[in-house]
Design a protein that fits this description.
Helix content is about 30%, strand content about 25%. The chain contains four helices and six strands, in the order ββββαααββα. The protein has two domains: about 80 residues, no CATH class; about 55 residues, no CATH class. The longest helix is centred in the middle third of the chain and has 23 residues. The strands form two sheets. A four-stranded antiparallel sheet has the order 1-2-3-4, covered by helices on one side. Bound molecules: iron/sulfur cluster (SF4).
């Protein structure tokens, strides 16, 4: 199971972290929601790593900003990069596999979405992502 959480800092900001199957992420914001530091270590390389890092930071920033400004409902899902369950992920993958918009790798498996440019292996794992053609 991913471990994730937040805690207030002694400077009045918020610290968020998530240890997930696709990487370890830590970030700290000040009381105004400004990013003070980040240590993002995605498991993958290149574009997939960039996508994971940017997605987690954005999801965590939104959640942390809400905490800083008093929102009660911190989204644990968002801090865990808003992870999809395996069943959902598998269904998304099957849709993308049969989609003519998906680019393919040399094995014929989906690589990127031709509509939004996302790396599909990452996109299907993030719950707040959606198919630009509303297929999932
Ligand atoms: S995200 Fe949607 S449009 Fe993109 S490849 Fe998958 S099914 Fe096709």
């Amino acid at each position: 199971m991913p471990t994730q959480g937040t805690q207030p800092t002694n400077r009045g900001g918020i610290l968020a972290w998530a240890n997930t199957p696709w990487g370890n992420f830590v970030a700290e914001w000040d009381e105004n929601g400004n990013l003070l530091r980040e240590e993002c270590k995605p498991q993958k390389k290149g574009e997939v790593a960039k996508h994971y890092r940017e997605t987690w930071l954005e999801a965590a920033r939104r959640a942390a900003h809400g905490v800083v400004h008093g929102a009660v409902g911190l989204s644990k899902a968002a801090l865990g990069v808003d992870a999809t369950e395996k069943g959902v992920r598998d269904r998304r993958w099957e849709v993308c596999r049969s989609c003519d918009k998906a680019t393919r790798n040399k094995h014929g498996e989906p690589n990127r979405c031709g509509e939004c440019g996302c790396v599909l292996a990452a996109k299907i794992r993030i719950a707040r992502e959606s198919c630009p053609l509303h297929k999932w």
